[in-house]
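Subject: Peptidase M23

B.,
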Amino acid sequence: MLPGPLRRALNCVLAATAALLPAVVVTTTPAAARPAELTAACPAAGFVSQHFHSGHNGVDIANNVGTPIYAVGDGEVTISGYTGDYGQWIRVLHPDGRISEYGHMSRRDVSVGDRVVAGQQIALMGAEGNSTGPHLHLRIWGDPSTSYGIDPEAHLAERGVVLPCTPGSGPRPKPPVHPAESGRVVSARSADGRLEVFAAGADGVHHAWQQEVNGNWSAWEPLGGPGGGAELAIAPNADGRLEVFAVNGSTFQHRWQLSPSGGWSNWETFGGGGKDTAAGVNADGRIEVYASGPVGLFHRYQTAANGGWSEWEPAGGPADSRVEMEKAPDGRLEVFALNGDAFRHQYQTAPSGGWSAWEDFGGGGHDLTVDHNADGRLEVFASGPVGVFHKYQTGATSWSQWEPTGGPADAQLTSERTPDGRVEVFAVNSATAMHTWQTAPNAPYGEWAAFGTGGTEVTAAANADGRIEVFGAGRAGTYHKWQTGFATWSEWMWVNDKAGPALD
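Prediction pasted inline below.
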């Protein structure tokens, strides 16, 4: 698919957001109406030790080390990591496009991609980085590409919170866990933040993992399991242990971590063979698995968090379909199934509950990917013989029409969110690899741009610091490419300088 191995020189510095915005927009349809103004919450107990002024871009709230820090509004975590001035820091992108930024923490309780609600505990106060004592440095950005933000005290006061303030009741319910992309290559983060990747070759499934958070990779490890280029899905258990599912035409097996971020079990039988599979996590923490085959789809689910499994149950839907899952902002799972003739979807009628009937979603196609916007609305892309189309939620249950975006014909698709909350889509067919991205959170998309030469499979995942990492496979092996900033990318190279499994 891609050029030969190059030596990795990791650069984790995030570039300015403005550098990546393309000038041309594919669709002229405006983005859906923005949600109402964000609800504000008290960020932390303590006294204001320094106000916002021309020499201080933010407000400081001082208190003891370990004082809880709370999200000032609903949103999605786009950065959770380390930087020199702050030590540990967090950014949350809110539905109105503003960003809240928190610095100098002694502990972080959320990861990139987590959705948080106003008043949810996200960290503990500390004195890391450039600090003379324990405090929270809070910034509010209207546009992070500018050099100065918005006065946080004025921002909060407009929403009914006056500093100093008293936090509410503390942590809120755990945010939704969004499903990882399924396919012949899958990747997800372990509980400690390290990415793990699985690729299904002719001889079985192969596995590699980051040896440190955001860092370099292990060598590929052959695991056995279903061969013949099985379809894979991956999901976390409620206690943080990842679980991998693999299906080919005759076999369905699974294996799981024995402890969070730890070693793995052996393969165990999970069912008969099938066409494709997808896995997601219910609002109550139970994993739910869908699989397609010649008579439609079936599903199976944990009967308790971290626990045993139900029997397979018929679910109807398109036969021998490509399957993906996503999660609505209220925690309900939604399943999308596509074959050459039909595209349908069904959704839970309540979080962790039963399922609706299948509904028509469009005509047939080649492959699909599903993601969520910064404001939580789902976005679906599907490929076919004339390129890639997309369709997005305009409300909780309403959808736009299908819109053409261009892009490669009959491509394999994947998607992920950039560190500032924009959806980015990757497409590969036998001749080319391309990508397109939103010009702003919740906004239309730019023109497709070259991303590599042709291949047979692609998947994307987010590092703990928010940078997207893409894995592409072809007949020569499995490669990867990662963001070195919001707009800049490494070259394609082997994982750990070694060819991964070949995928025809």
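Residues 355 and 406 are 33 Å apart (CA to CA).

T.
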